[in-house]
Design the sequence.
């Protein structure tokens, strides 16, 4: 048998084994969650009060969460807009100048209150089912907000391997996989982080811009050329990381980038108004 043919068959077997292992892992996690539901009472992920079996939030916290998610936001930076302030594609008073390279933002709500608490629970306490629920809500928001848009790729904002190793959880990657499955679109991993940087949350905006400069690269530009891409992250603050990632994708040939996030950290003078 030719060597290349043998190598091809070996690769197929390895791929099949890996797929079976992933499927077994998903089944194992699902079974474990059902066992936990049987043995322990359901507790609200926000206020820790008792819930109906299988629920992640109590009715009061669900109501608060839906109130946060219903708030209007600026389509260019994602900041919460005040009452009677129109959403304009040329931005709001909270938008950075110059405007970021991504074309628009889809979000669930502000990084505060119940939504902020849920994201932190998913990030630090591995609330698997709640993360799946938030991913489904963000998928619905993308479809509802941009019903006439045609996207080619869903892509996570990549985490450097050192950060992923220390944190043990990559929310952007998990969210991207769920959104890609929900929208029936390919999941891309061509965007990679090539430079380890300081955490953006600990830096002022001026430092954030330089901190992420040159932090990304694209591998496999053929799939990026001409593509309309949804770049997914968990939280955006100033948008500096998403801006640099979008600039890298556009330089590699992408036609446009839409940023999708669970939450936006509103500026200190929230909410964005008409100039007041």
Sequence:
């Amino acid at each position: 048998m030719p060597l290349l043919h043998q190598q091809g068959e070996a690769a197929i077997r390895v791929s099949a084994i890996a797929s079976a292992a992933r499927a077994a892992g998903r089944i194992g996690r699902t079974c474990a969650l059902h066992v936990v539901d049987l043995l322990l009472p359901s507790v609200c992920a926000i206020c820790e009060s008792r819930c109906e079996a299988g629920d992640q939030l109590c009715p009061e916290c669900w109501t608060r969460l839906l109130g946060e998610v219903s708030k209007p936001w600026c389509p260019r930076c994602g900041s919460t807009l005040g009452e009677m302030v129109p959403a304009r594609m040329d931005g709001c008073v909270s938008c950075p100048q110059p405007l970021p390279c991504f074309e628009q933002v889809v979000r669930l709500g502000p990084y505060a209150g119940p939504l902020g608490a849920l994201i932190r629970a998913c990030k630090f306490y591995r609330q698997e089912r709640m993360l799946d629920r938030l991913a489904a809500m963000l998928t619905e928001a993308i479809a509802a907000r941009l019903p006439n848009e045609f996207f080619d790729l869903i892509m996570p904002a990549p985490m450097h391997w050192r950060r992923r190793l220390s944190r043990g959880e990559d929310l952007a990657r998990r969210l991207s996989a769920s959104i890609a499955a929900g929208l029936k679109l390919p999941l891309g991993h061509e965007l990679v982080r090539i430079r380890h940087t300081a955490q953006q949350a600990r830096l002022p905006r001026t430092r954030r811009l330089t901190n992420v400069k040159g932090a990304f690269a694209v591998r496999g530009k053929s799939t990026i050329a001409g593509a309309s891409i949804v770049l997914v992250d968990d939280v955006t603050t100033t948008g500096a990381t998403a801006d640099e990632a979008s600039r890298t994708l556009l330089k590699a040939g992408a036609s446009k980038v839409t940023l999708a996030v669970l939450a936006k950290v509103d500026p200190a003078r929230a909410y964005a108004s008409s100039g007041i």
